[in-house]
Amino acid sequence: MEDKRGEVTVHIAQELKKYSEDISVLYVEDDVDLRENTMKLLSRFFCAIENAPNGAEGLRRYSAGSFDIVITDIRMPEMDGVEMARRIREINPDQGIIVTSAHSEVQYLLELINIGINRFVVKPLDVERFLYALTQACKKIQNDRVIADFYRKLKQMADEETEKRRRSEQLLIQQSKLASMGEMLGAISHQWMQPLNAIALIVQDIKEVYDHDGFDEKYLGEAVISTMDCVKFMSTTVDSFRRFLKPSKDKTRFDVKEAIEDIVQMFSGVFKSHGIAVSLEAKEVNFYVHGYPNEFKQVILNIINNSKDAIESRGTNDSDFDGKITITIVNEGKKTAIYIVDNGGGIPAEIIEKIFDPYFTTKTETKGTGIGLYMSKTITENNMNGKLTVKNIEDGAEFKIEIQSCA
Description:
Strand content: 15-25%
Number of strands: 12
Oligomer: single chain
Radius of gyration: 38 Å
Low-confidence stretches: none
C-alpha cells in the first residue's frame, strides 16, 4: 500500500515538474520550521519563490512583486490569511490562492469560499495532496496562458487584417479620386478662369496707361494689389484641391455642412458648365460627426457625380431640361442625415440593388470604373459606422447618408 502511495506521489511530482516552469510562488506561514521545510519542497519545482512570516508582510511582498500562486496559512500574527487573501483578491480578482488549514478552522474556510477561494490543503500537510493542489493550480495557469496567447495572436491577426483592409480601402479611395481627376482639372480651370482674365486685363491696362503717360507709383501699387489678390485666390484653390487629395489618416470631429460646402464650392464651375444647379439646404448651423473628413468629401463627390451623369443622360433627350441636385442636411435623433436628391430620372429597377457592388457600372470605360459608389458605401459604413442607401423618387433618385452625431 505504501509502495502504491509512493508511486502516486512520484507521478504527481512529475506532473507538477512539467507544469511548474516559469511559475512564481509566494508562501506565507508563521511557523518557522514548517515554512523552512515547505520552502525546501517548493524549491524542487519552482525557481521563483518568496516567503513571508505573516499576512501583513505577505501582502507587502505581493504588492511589490508578481506571483502566479499564493500559498497561505490562516492564523497568523499582525494579519491573518483570510484578510490577506481578501486584499489580494481586491488587487487581482483572478489571483490563484491555496490555503493550508487545520480542521479547527472551518469557520474561516466559509469566509474564504465567499471570496472565491476553493483550493485548500489540510494541516499537517500531506505531501501528495499538497503537490496535487499545486499541480492543478499550475495546470490552470498554463492553460490560461495558452488561451491568453491564443487570443493575443488572434487579435494581432485581426488587427493586421483590419490594417490590410484599411490600406486596400485607402488605395481604392485614391483610385476613386484619380478617376475624378478629369472633373478636378475641369473644376480648377473654371475656378482659375476669372482671376486669369482679371490678370490679363490688368497687364493690358498697364501697357495702355504707360503709353498715355499715366503710369505712376500709385497706379503701380493698385495694379500689384489687384494682381496679388487674383494670385492668392488661385493659390487657395490649389490648396483646397491638395487637401482634398491628401488621405485622412486619423478620425477627427468635423462639420458635415462645412465639408459639403467645400466640395460644392470646389466643383461648382464643373456643374454649372453642364447646366446643373447644386443647392445645399441646412436649417441648423453645425452638424458634427466623427470620421475622416476627406474621405467623406469623396463620398459626396462620388454621389453628386453619379447624379450629374444621370442628369446628363436624361438631358440628351430633352434640350429644355434643367438639371438639379439638392443636398439637405438634418439632425434625426442622435444621427446626422444627408439627403442627396437629383432629377436625373431615377435608377432602373433591375440594377438599383447592384449599384453599390464593386466595379459595377453601366457607363463606358472612359466615363466610369464602377468603384465610386462602392467606395462611398465602404467609407460610410465601414470607416464611419454610418449607413448609405438609395431609392427612386418622383423624377429622380435619393441617396441618404446617416452618421452618428457627436457634440
